[in-house]
Design brief:
about 100 residues
Length: about 100
């Protein structure tokens, strides 16, 4: 009968936890710095853009949302069609 391996020591878990914690903190600082730069760029761009650019931006966002809504309906219909085909062909019947 094979012998059981001893459980890892708690110190190993603490050491691994500390390394992961340190890595996550450095990554979070990097993401925070990058997001602040992007947000300030967007804010500056919004202040200097003309009324025409602002209107076009709003129109494009509305069109994008409409397109996503239509795409969702199309994908839902396709999924229902595939499920119907699987039921008709007997895919879900158990083989004895």
């Amino acid at each position: 009968m094979p012998t059981k391996k001893p459980a890892p020591k708690k110190a190993n878990f603490d050491k691994k936890f500390q390394t992961v914690k340190k890595t996550m903190q450095t990554e979070a600082k990097f993401v925070e710095k990058e997001s602040k730069e992007i947000a300030t760029w967007i804010g500056r761009r919004r202040k200097v853009s003309s009324a025409e650019e602002k209107v076009y931006t709003i129109v494009w966002i509305i069109l994008l949302l409409l397109w996503l809504y239509v795409l969702r309906q199309m994908l839902g219909g396709m999924i229902l069609l595939v499920i119907w085909i699987l039921f008709v062909t007997g895919f879900f019947h158990r083989k004895n």
